[in-house]
């Protein structure tokens, strides 16, 4: 089920008794929470809407709400976030598990249970998890791929009568690693900046959007592999000057080289490779583009030298900047 389906259910008041929300796209998860909240009129929310984080509040209050009918209204919505009792971690007491099982089988009319599991790895061996997976309406909000992010951006800008230059859009995706949630965070200031022209330019993206650390590591790795010694050293110096810890920077650089090696060993689509490696498909796409330009042996050599640099950073009192300069000279 999608968010559009959920909107339709709310509009037509065709709501099931329970939902299980999963996914790893923060912006979509927040939108889902707002939609569930909208079921209850604002003036009734104090009595008929509640949200509990299981990690801090437990489950007793949520169970109490779910066993009471709506207070002078048609619906009561009870949200439970961070339900680690469905994963391999926390356990419910026997009484709590029985109470929740009864609520699922015999819900109070008008009450709606919404479980936000987000990206928790559910333990499907658990009896209660199996029951919820079987009975709750699933709403899966997985991370959008690059094409979907582009479409969402274009739709949002069209609604506001704005345009974005192609090179600006590409740079925006690069700087945010094509994260839909990150793009949504950056768009308000870009829209404000372009309020007069109604067009977002590459210069605006360069000036206003900070690159994610993974994007910075990609740029640095690209300079290293191209043999642009001076530019790589200057970039490294600038990153450290701006507060990036040398060890973390080295780890990011090592991770980028490792990703190149891992992607080189995988076939299939960017999405499949991204799922296997646990990274956004956009990073796989960029890595595959890089692999067309650099010999695999050169990438392996760089990986081993960066690994050796990390060992030296941790075991010797050596200036990290000197180590990086030495690495670039030798590489």
UniProtKB/TrEMBL annotation:
Report the EC number(s), separated by commas if there are several.
Answer: 2.7.7.7
Q: Which reaction does it catalyse?
A: DNA(n) + a 2'-deoxyribonucleoside 5'-triphosphate = DNA(n+1) + diphosphate
Q: Where is the DNA polymerase III delta N-terminal domain?
A: 19-137
DNA polymerase III delta subunit-like C-terminal domain residues are 216-331
Record's Pfam families?
A: DNA_pol3_delta (PF06144), DNA_pol3_delta_C (PF21694)
Keyword Glycoprotein found:
no
Q: Give one GO molecular function term.
A: DNA-directed DNA polymerase activity
Q: Which residues form a coiled coil?
A: none
- Matching InterPro entries, A to Z? DNA_pol3_clamp-load_cplx_C (IPR008921), DNA_pol3_delta-like_C (IPR048466), DNA_pol3_delta_N (IPR010372), DNA_polIII_delta (IPR005790), P-loop_NTPase (IPR027417)
Q: Does the keyword Transferase apply?
A: yes
Query: Which principal EC class is assigned to this enzyme?
Result: transferase
What UniProt keywords apply to this chain's record, in alphabetical order? DNA replication, DNA-directed DNA polymerase, Nucleotidyltransferase, Transferase
- Gene3D superfamilies linked to this entry: 1.10.8.60, 1.20.272.10, P-loop containing nucleotide triphosphate hydrolases
NCBIfam families tied to this protein: holA
Similarity section: Belongs to the DNA polymerase HolA subunit family.
Q: Which PANTHER family match?
A: DNA POLYMERASE III SUBUNIT DELTA
Name of this chain's protein: DNA polymerase III subunit delta
Organism source for this protein?
A: Fructobacillus fructosus
């Amino acid at each position: 089920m999608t968010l559009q389906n959920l909107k339709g259910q709310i509009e037509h008041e065709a709501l099931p008794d329970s939902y299980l929300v999963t996914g790893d796209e923060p912006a979509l998860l927040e939108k889902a929470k707002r939609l569930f909240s909208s079921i209850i009129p604002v003036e009734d929310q104090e009595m008929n809407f509640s949200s509990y984080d299981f990690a801090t509040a437990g489950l007793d209050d949520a169970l109490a709400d779910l066993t009471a009918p709506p207070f002078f209204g048609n619906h009561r919505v009870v949200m439970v976030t961070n339900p680690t009792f469905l994963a391999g971690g926390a356990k419910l007491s026997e009484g709590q598990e029985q109470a929740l099982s009864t609520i699922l089988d015999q819900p109070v009319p008008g009450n709606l249970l919404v479980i936000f599991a987000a990206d928790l790895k559910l333990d499907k061996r658990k009896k209660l998890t199996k029951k919820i997976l079987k009975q709750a309406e699933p709403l899966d909000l997985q991370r959008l791929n690059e094409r979907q992010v582009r479409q969402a951006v274009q739709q949002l800008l069209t609604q506001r009568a704005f345009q974005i230059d192609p090179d600006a859009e590409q740079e925006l995706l690069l700087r945010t690693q094509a994260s839909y949630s990150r793009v949504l965070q950056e768009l308000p200031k870009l829209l404000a900046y372009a309020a007069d022209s109604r067009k977002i330019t590459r210069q605006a993206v360069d000036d206003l959007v900070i690159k994610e650390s993974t994007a910075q590591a990609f740029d640095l790795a690209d300079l290293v592999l191209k043999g642009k010694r001076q530019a790589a050293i200057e970039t490294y110096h600038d990153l450290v000057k701006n507060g990036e810890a040398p060890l973390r920077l080295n780890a990011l650089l090592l991770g980028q080289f490792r990703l190149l090696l891992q992607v080189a060993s995988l076939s299939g689509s960017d999405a499949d490779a991204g799922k296997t490696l646990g990274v956004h498909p956009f990073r796989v796409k960029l890595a595959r583009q890089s692999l067309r330009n650099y010999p695999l042996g050169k990438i392996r050599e760089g990986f081993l030298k960066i690994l050796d640099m990390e060992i030296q950073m941790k075991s010797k009192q050596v200036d990290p900047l000197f180590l990086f300069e030495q690495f670039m000279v030798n590489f």
